[in-house]
């Protein structure tokens, strides 16, 4: 009798586990089915964004996220349509369209992982921080990076990057994801910062932009020496073996072990970040590298008429290469003169380097963004934290 009772108890336990598992699966399916946005065509844009959930793309943010491929063209007159990857995240899908959206634009040799950092996300993950405070984020892989299409590397420059970003702004503004986003901002890192500046200065279609780790006057002796020993062709790196586009000599990546260039003094960052850096690194285009160098000697940023928060990391060894300290560097001191009066705010992020978000001081930058946006009338909606 006891044997029968034990067997029945085990069967009941198994059935209960199965019911719970089924209920969990049903809950997950219901959550996916309840995502409120259905992509649709937008007049003047080259296609309909495609919603997908890529099995190999997960967010470390803990937010509700949905993957999209946006049809874009490199230039306004181009007929060739490319797919640009973006991950839309929010703490509450019911608030999509009601929350301000931040488009996140990464830099060279990174992809969207820079803003959705997997190591200690409670400290370093931008998407997590902003979605918890009532913002929606759209985290991009720029064309030529990550899961986006890879055209010829020589075709990539910041007019192309700005044009594709502009199309994505318009998909959001005009309801390409099923709802219109009324408040759209850009946050750009390094090459993504220049992308954001060119986009805002050319198309005038964003409400605010935040840029970090990019400025004017790149070519100091120290910066040239560091960049000259940082990268090599992606086809030489085992990480990109078998990628058809990697045989293109215009695609570069960082030499293993050289990503300390993105960090300040050893006391300003966790050394375990370097392991994550090499594991998650991406590529960049040699023509983008040349283009960013040339554009740091123009005043095209005077075309920007939206509020801009400019935030280098204190120990940015690329942009503040004269003193290696943006508090004292002449590049940093001269930066306000490249913008029209009334739009520019300077905030040097202490205790971090070129990878501004990933040093110990990165959280200060996140706090400052929320404060600065609020100062300009842009507030999170429905966030769990203030």
In short:
With about 375 residues, this protein is an alpha/beta fold.
Radius of gyration: 22 Å
Derived structural class = alpha/beta
SSE run: HEEEEHHEHEHEHEEHEHEEHEEH
Largest sheet: 9 strands, mixed
What does this structure look like?
The protein has 386 residues and is an alpha/beta fold. 30% of the residues lie in helices and 17% in strands. The protein has ten helices and 14 strands. The protein has helices at 2-33, 121-124, 126-131, 158-173, 191-203, 221-228, 273-280, 286-295, 330-334, 362-375, and strands at residues 50-52, 64-72, 82-90, 101-105, 136-141, 184-189, 208-212, 231-233, 251-254, 283-285, 308-310, 313-315, 344-346, 349-353. The protein has a nine-stranded mixed beta sheet with strand order 1-2-3-5-4-6-7-11-13, sandwiched between helices. A three-stranded antiparallel beta sheet has the order 8-9-10. A two-stranded parallel ribbon has the order 12-14. Residues 1-33 have low confidence and may be disordered.
Describe the secondary-structure layout.
Layout: H1 2-33, E1 50-52, E2 64-72, E3 82-90, E4 101-105, H2 121-124, H3 126-131, E5 136-141, H4 158-173, E6 184-189, H5 191-203, E7 208-212, H6 221-228, E8 231-233, E9 251-254, H7 273-280, E10 283-285, H8 286-295, E11 308-310, E12 313-315, H9 330-334, E13 344-346, E14 349-353, H10 362-375
Parallel strand pairs: 4-5, 4-6, 6-7, 7-11, 11-13, 12-14
Antiparallel strand pairs: 1-2, 2-3, 3-5, 8-9, 9-10
Helix pairs in contact: 4-5
């Amino acid at each position: 009798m006891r044997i029968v009772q034990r067997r029945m108890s085990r069967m009941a336990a198994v059935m209960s586990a199965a019911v719970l598992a089924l209920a969990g699966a049903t809950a997950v399916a219901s959550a996916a089915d309840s995502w409120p946005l259905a992509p649709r065509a937008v007049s003047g844009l080259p296609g309909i964004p495609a919603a997908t959930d890529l099995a190999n793309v997960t967010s470390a943010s803990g937010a509700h996220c949905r993957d999209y491929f946006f049809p874009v063209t490199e230039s306004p007159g181009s007929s060739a349509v490319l797919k640009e990857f973006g991950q839309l995240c929010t703490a509450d899908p019911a608030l999509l369209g009601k929350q301000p959206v931040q488009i996140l634009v990464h830099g060279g040799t990174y992809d969207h992982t820079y803003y959705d950092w997997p190591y200690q996300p409670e400290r370093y993950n931008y998407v997590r921080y902003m979605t918890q405070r009532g913002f929606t984020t759209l985290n991009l892989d720029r064309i030529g990076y990550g899961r986006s299409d890879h055209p010829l590397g020589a075709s990539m420059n910041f007019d192309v990057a700005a044009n594709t970003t502009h199309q994505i702004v318009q998909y959001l503004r005009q309801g390409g994801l099923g709802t219109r986003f009324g408040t759209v901002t850009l946050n750009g890192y390094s090459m993504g910062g220049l992308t954001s500046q060119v986009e805002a200065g050319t198309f005038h279609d964003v409400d605010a932009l935040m840029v970090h780790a990019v400025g004017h006057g790149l070519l100091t002796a120290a910066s040239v020496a560091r960049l000259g020993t940082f990268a090599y062709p992606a086809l030489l790196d085992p990480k990109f073996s078998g990628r058809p586009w990697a045989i293109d000599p215009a695609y570069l990546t960082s030499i293993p072990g050289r990503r300390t260039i993105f960090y300040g003094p050893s006391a300003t960052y966790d050394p375990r970040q370097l392991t994550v850096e090499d594991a998650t690194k991406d590529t960049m285009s040699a023509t983008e590298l040349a283009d960013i160098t040339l554009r740091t000697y123009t005043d095209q940023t005077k075309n920007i008429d939206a509020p801009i928060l400019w935030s280098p990391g204190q120990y940015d060894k690329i942009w503040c290469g004269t003193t290696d300290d943006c508090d004292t560097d002449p590049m940093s001191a001269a930066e306000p003169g490249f913008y029209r009066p009334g739009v520019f705010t300077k905030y040097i992020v202490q205790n971090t380097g070129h990878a501004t978000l990933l040093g110990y001081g990165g959280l200060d930058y996140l706090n400052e963004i929320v404060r600065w946006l609020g100062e300009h009338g842009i507030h999170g909606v429905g966030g769990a934290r203030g």
